[in-house]
Design brief:
Helix content: 55-70%
Structural class: alpha+beta
Number of strands: 5
Distance between the termini: 30 Å
Length: 181
């Protein structure tokens, strides 16, 4: 709440019955983005589509009965990756439905959270992929590599999609409205 303390003021008003009403009024900075309405709607829809596909592929990879998932350097990043995936979803679903002036708390809860969660998810998926490669090269049995390759592909595709999602988020430029004058 301390982050928002300087951005809101409490206005006291009196209603017709003489009771005082406290109303929070936003006095902070407003932001705009470099996309028009159709581009912003397309950005929102593609973000939801990316999130859906990433989630489905990541969960499907967990259902594969492969020996690599029994190694902590594969299973730990896989499991921890659900946290940034959750925060990524929260950021995407906090994106406004229409393009308006954005308050700084909306920017933090949507655009900034998307960026942070995408980077975290990318890192964890990358560590899991490297762990699976280490297992594939050094420890897997030659006759049982089919499930390892399937797991690798089902983790590499979300890695790529997360990268594309991060790139599409980086194309969105937030500009304070006061600087546009």
């Amino acid at each position: 709440m301390t982050k928002l303390q300087d951005e809101y003021e409490i206005e006291v008003s009196t209603d017709k019955n003489g009771r005082e009403r406290n109303t929070a009024v936003y006095r902070g900075e407003f932001f705009t983005i470099n996309l028009d309405k159709t581009e912003f709607l397309r950005f929102r829809q593609t973000s939801v589509a990316y999130l859906s596909i990433i989630t489905v592929l990541h969960v499907l990879a967990g259902f594969i009965n492969n020996q690599g998932m029994r190694q902590f350097y594969v299973s730990l990043p896989y499991t921890i990756a659900f946290f940034p995936l959750l925060y990524l979803g929260m950021g995407i679903f906090h994106l406004p439905k229409t393009k308006l002036k954005f308050q700084s708390d909306e920017v933090r809860l949507s655009f900034d959270r998307m960026k942070t969660a995408s980077i975290s998810l990318l890192a964890l998926l990358g560590v899991g992929i490297i762990g699976e490669l280490v297992y594939l090269i050094g420890f897997s049995l030659p006759g049982k590599r089919n499930t390892e390759f399937l797991f690798f592909i089902l983790e590499f595709l979300p890695f790529l999609l997360t990268y594309f999602l991060l790139r599409s988020r980086q194309r969105v430029v937030l500009t304070p409205l006061e600087r546009e004058k």
